[in-house]
């Protein structure tokens, strides 16, 4: 056997089958990695808009006189639609293809961000930020990364999933301080245009380099055998709804959805939306507060990876209880840490809270798999929807609380108490595994 064939045989578990299956030469760099790179950049482009709302609460309030509750309502519509669109995003990609769905989603995000430059009424903010951008970002939620990973990779799925999960935090790290600087130096409109351009710039890369399935270019997925491209899926949306109705008849679903709703309330709805304006209320410059929020994104990647390692070794329910309890304690102390400048206790909070930010995802996924077997991915999509609904509620109520009380202290305390409730809810999720993987009552 020639040496080259021997090498190919030895590395077969990490590479597609030989070119003889379709008459094409195997590329030196597998196309899957190019698709993964485009996905990474696309998620970063979408993250540009997600970094904007929390930075614009004060500028919009100052210019238009809109209450923070009104502005928070637009953010809450965005988050709610993000969550409610996510369970159907995979079905849309199966039906119409990844390229079409993602390119359309990026265009919606760009349209919402760009149209807001000319808005004069709060209902327009709700339409542009809430409806358009909410539908767009929801279509690029976890389903996008999960679909790409599932179709293009057999080997290295865990690595690719971790990298694509980190893309959102990377986008936050890049765009939060950058947009904060633009707002301070040039106003909020150039920052909104910047996020629109960030989304539009990615569209050509998606259209030219992204492919829906390895078979489209005559390849096997990375590390797996060649398979023909399946026909467009029909009925996936109906199955998504059916799984929800079945899961909703079980107690664990409501406990998982409830804990994850509190997770969203105490992260995206609370910190991502209201941390910057709250710190600014205490005299901290917006650019400094935004940089602190960006640093949280760095540590949430570390915390999520470590949480995945812990989930393989310890009971998921107990991990969730610990995570929520520690998060609640940190939020109770946050009002005492607010100051015009960055002090060591605030740095400790940023690191500690960042490690806990999305550490809840691996154990929540593990519990979904344990409880719902083959339907676990769809069930997690609905649990993720509850996460965003919880975020939406607090994004709105946090703004209302600021209008009523003149500060955010009550919001931090209430969120800390909610996290304590989530810790107790996690502990009462029963350990059930049906041998057939079906929904258990």
List descriptors:
441 residues, mainly alpha, Growth Hormone, Chain: A, 2 domains, 18 helices, 75% helix, MFS, transmembrane transporter activity
Task: Give a concise summary.
With 441 residues, the protein is an all-alpha fold. It has 18 helices and no strands.
Describe the structure.
- The protein is mainly α and 441 residues long.
- The chain folds into 2 domains: 27-219, MFS general substrate transporter like domains (Growth Hormone, Chain: A), CATH 1.20.1250.20; 240-435, MFS general substrate transporter like domains (Growth Hormone, Chain: A).
- It has 18 helices and no strands.
- Helix 8 runs antiparallel to helix 13 and helix 14 (316-337) runs antiparallel to helix 15 (344-356).
- The longest helix has 30 residues, at 157-186.
- It is globular.
- The model is unreliable at 1-24 and 433-441 (pLDDT under 50).
- Residues 34-434 form the Major facilitator superfamily (MFS) profile domain.
- Its main location: membrane.
The profile of the biggest β sheet is: none
Q: What's the name of the CATH homologous superfamily of the largest domain?
A: MFS general substrate transporter like domains
User: Can you write the helix and strand succession as a string?
Assistant: HHHHHHHHHHHHHHHHHH
Shape: globular
GO molecular function: transmembrane transporter activity
Organism: Streptomyces violaceoruber
Subcellular location: Cell membrane
Protein name: MFS transporter
């Amino acid at each position: 056997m020639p040496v080259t064939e021997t090498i190919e045989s030895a590395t077969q578990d990490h590479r597609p089958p030989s070119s003889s299956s379709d008459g094409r030469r195997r590329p030196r760099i597998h196309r899957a990695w190019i698709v993964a790179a485009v996905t990474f950049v696309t998620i970063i482009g979408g993250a540009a808009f997600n970094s904007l709302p929390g930075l614009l609460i004060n500028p919009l309030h100052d210019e238009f006189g809109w209450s923070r509750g009104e502005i928070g309502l637009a953010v809450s519509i965005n988050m709610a639609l993000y969550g409610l669109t996510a369970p159907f995003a995979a079905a849309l990609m199966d039906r119409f293809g990844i390229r079409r769905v993602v390119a359309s989603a990026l265009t919606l995000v760009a349209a919402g961000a760009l149209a807001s430059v000319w808005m004069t009424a709060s209902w327009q903010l709700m339409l542009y930020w809430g409806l358009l951008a909410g539908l767009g970002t929801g279509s690029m939620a976890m389903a996008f990364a999960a679909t790409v990973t599932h179709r293009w990779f057999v080997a290295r799925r865990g690595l690719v999933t971790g990298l694509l999960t980190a893309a959102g935090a990377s986008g936050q790290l890049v765009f939060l301080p950058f947009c904060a600087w633009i707002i301070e130096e040039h106003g909020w409109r150039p920052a909104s245009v910047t996020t629109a351009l960030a989304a539009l710039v990615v569209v050509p890369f998606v259209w030219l380099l992204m492919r829906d399935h390895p078979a489209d270019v005559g390849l096997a997925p990375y590390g797996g055998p060649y398979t023909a491209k399946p026909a467009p899926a029909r009925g996936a949306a109906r199955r998504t709804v059916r799984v929800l109705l079945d899961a909703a008849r079980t107690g664990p679903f409501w406990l998982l959805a409830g804990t994850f709703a509190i997770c969203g309330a105490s992260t995206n709805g609370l910190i991502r939306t209201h941390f910057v304006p709250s710190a600014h209320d205490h005299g901290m410059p917006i650019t400094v507060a935004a940089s602190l929020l960006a640093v949280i994104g760095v540590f949430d990647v570390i915390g999520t990876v470590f949480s995945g390692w812990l989930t393989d070794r310890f009971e998921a329910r107990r991990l969730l209880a610990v995570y929520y309890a520690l998060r609640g304690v940190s939020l109770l102390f946050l009002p005492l840490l607010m100051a015009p400048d960055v002090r060591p206790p605030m740095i400790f909070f940023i690191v500690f809270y960042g490690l806990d930010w999305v550490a809840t995802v691996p154990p929540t996924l593990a519990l979904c798999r344990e409880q719902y077997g083959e339907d676990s991915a769809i069930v997690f999509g609905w649990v993720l929807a509850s996460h965003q609904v919880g975020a939406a509620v607090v994004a709105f109520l946090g703004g209302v609380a600021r209008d009523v009380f003149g500060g955010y202290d009550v919001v931090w305390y209430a969120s800390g108490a909610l996290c304590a409730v989530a810790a107790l809810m996690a502990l009462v999720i029963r350990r059930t595994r049906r041998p057939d993987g079906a929904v258990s009552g």
